[in-house]
Amino acid sequence: MIEQMYQSLGISREVYEYGEQVLADLRERFAGIDRTAEYNQLKVISAMQKSRVSEACLLGTTGYGYNDLGRDTLEQVYASLFHTETALVRPQITCGTHALALALMSNLRPGDELLSPVGKPYDTLEEVIGIRPSRGSLKEYGISYRQVDLKEDGSFDWEAIRAAVGPRTRLATIQRSKGYQTRPTFSVEQIGELIAFLKGIKPDLICMVDNCYGEFTQTIEPTDVGADMCVGSLIKNPGGGLAPIGGYIAGTTECVENAACRLTSPGLGREVGASLNALPAFYQGLFLAPTVTAGALKGAIFAANLYERLGFFVVPSGAAPRYDIIQAIQFNSPEGLCAFCEGIQYAAPVDSFVTPEPWDMPGYDSQVIMAAGAFVSGSSIELSADGPLRPPYAAYFQGGLTWQHAKFGILKSLQQCVDKGVVGLSKADGQA
Ligand SMILES: *Cc1c(COP(=O)(O)O)cnc(C)c1O
Predict the structure, then answer these.
(1) Burial class (CB in 10 A: 0-12, 13-18, 19+), 246
(2) 103 lines ligand 1 (CB under 6 A)
(3) 215 CA distance to ligand 1 centroid (A)?
(4) What residues contact residue 260 under an 8 Å CB cut-off, 6+ apart?
(5) What is the average per-residue pLDDT within 269-295?
(6) Ligand 1 atom 6: the closest Cα is on which residue?
(7) E strand or H helix that includes residue 116
(8) Is pLDDT of 429 > 60?
(9) Residues whose CB is less than 8 angstroms from the CB of residue 117 and which lie 6 or more positions away in sequence, other chains included
(10) What digits encode the pLDDT tens for the residues 56-76?
(11) Can you tell me the distance from the alpha carbon of 234 to that of 230, in angstroms, rounded to the nearest whole number?
(12) Which residues are registered as beta bridge partners of 86?
């Protein structure tokens, strides 16, 4: 029955059977992911119960948003989940970059230095920091930046980090996910080691973690291992696919109050900021986030193993442990990259009938192809893929609101690769 359904959606018998073969070896890993999701589901419910979430919390406010019960309670829920003193969770935080910029700009002062002990930060932060000259950057405000690259093998360069911490170093920014780089993603335990090392050198150094794509992939979060702030986007993991906008900062009262006063205004801080109609999606999305993240993780692992067996270089490898939901697959040809993205698009619930085309995206030096048929525009917790049209023609793949959709998307991508002659399934028996 299921196979017939797949066939009616354009998946050939050979692609389906190959997928099933790959899946047969992944049962134990998937069971581990389900256990993490189960734990995190309980963690979310517990936080909601402790914070006494009530029906009234789902109503929004307008105007100034004074005494917004739902907003204030949701922030308590986040604080409880992240085991922090407080949190700021707002639709007025427009995206992940904004949340990170807010956390940085509000906690640094002229003359301070920002340190990244984990190499180059996410692309969009280059302009926030002023690594690439930009209007309103930290650099324009007299805040300097220092970076310590990771060692060749992706590990922390302890000695160089020690040497980089000086009297002006005020804040360390630690990106958990590799983002679109090829370095490893850090586990929360590794981040804990790094924070302990940094605080050992300078106890009052603020440690901020860019938590994008990492939430709920483990049972602990960076704030459980000493981070002063965890920062992320609600159109990634913690929004559970339902949040239509938003970002969060969970952390110490000192750090989060600074951010609130920067987001709105000194003197007003967190007291203003109407939640409008956003709260039901924020609560329900958070409630679903552990299982949605689990589905996306399974999709990433399935894709890695499926393409790895066909001889493609994948990052992380099929067997590697996972601390974020991003999967890179190197196609080595524009045809392969495009076929992959086409397949993801054709599997979407929205805009499945369009064919993605490479385009000249602002800020990139080569064309980029993107596949997304999402309910929330640009949401990357929904099944999506993209990649720049330049060697090694890597596709970056992430998301899937359900494991079943992720699986279908990946099979569809493989089907498209087979149909376009990019992949021959005869190779697909583990010896490729
Ligand atoms: C997505 C992401 C960001 C930026 O978030 P946007 O919502 O795209 O602005 C920052 N850091 C990392 C690691 C990310 O994955």
Answers:
(1) buried
(2) no
(3) 13
(4) 88, 269, 270
(5) 98
(6) 96
(7) strand 113-116
(8) no
(9) 148, 156, 157, 161, 164, 172, 174, 194, 198
(10) 999 999 999 999 999 999 999
(11) 13
(12) 251
Q: What is the pTM of this model?
A: 0.96
- Strands 247-251 vs 86-90: parallel, antiparallel or unpaired: antiparallel
Cis peptide before 316 (omega within 30 of 0): yes
Q: Is 232 in the pocket of ligand 1 (CB under 6 A)?
A: no
Q: Which among 261, 226, 269 has a CA at the least distance from the CA of 84?
A: 226
**Ligand 1 pocket test, candidate residues 210, 293, 386, 398, most atoms within 8 A of CB:** 210
Higher local confidence (pLDDT), 287 or 432: 287
Rounded to an integer, what is the distance from CA 324 to the centroid of its chain?
7
From residue 42, alpha-carbon distances to 34, 245, 251, 391 in Å are: 12, 25, 21, 44
Residue 333 contacts residue 394 (beta carbons within 8 Å): no
Pocket test for ligand 1, best of 95, 212, 236 (most atoms within 8 A of CB): 212
Q: Is 122 in the pocket of ligand 1 (CB under 6 A)?
A: yes
* Close Cβ partners of 212 (under 8 Å, ≥ 6 residues apart): 96, 122, 175, 176, 177, 179, 231, 232, 233, 236
User: 204: which residues sit within 8 A by CB, 6+ positions away?
Assistant: none
Q: Which of 252-261, 405-414, 422-431 has the lowest mean pLDDT?
A: 422-431
Phi, psi angle pair for 313, to nearest 5°? -80, 125
In angstroms, how far is CA 17 from the centroid of its own chain?
31
Q: Which amino acid residue places its CA nearest to atom 14 of ligand 1?
A: 212
Beta bridge partners of 247: 90, 233
Two structure tokens written together for 320: 């590697």
d(CA 121, CA 134) in angstroms, rounded, equals 16
What is the C-alpha separation between 310 and 286, in angstroms, rounded?
36
The answer to whether residue 39 scores a pLDDT higher than 90 is yes
Q: In what order do the strands lie in the sheet with 86-90?
A: 86-90, 247-251, 229-233, 206-210, 169-175, 113-116, 144-147
**427 pLDDT tier (thresholds 50, 70, 90):** low
* Cα 10 to ligand 1 centre (Å): 34
H or E element: which one contains 284? helix 279-309
Phi, psi of 399 (to 5 degrees): 90, -165
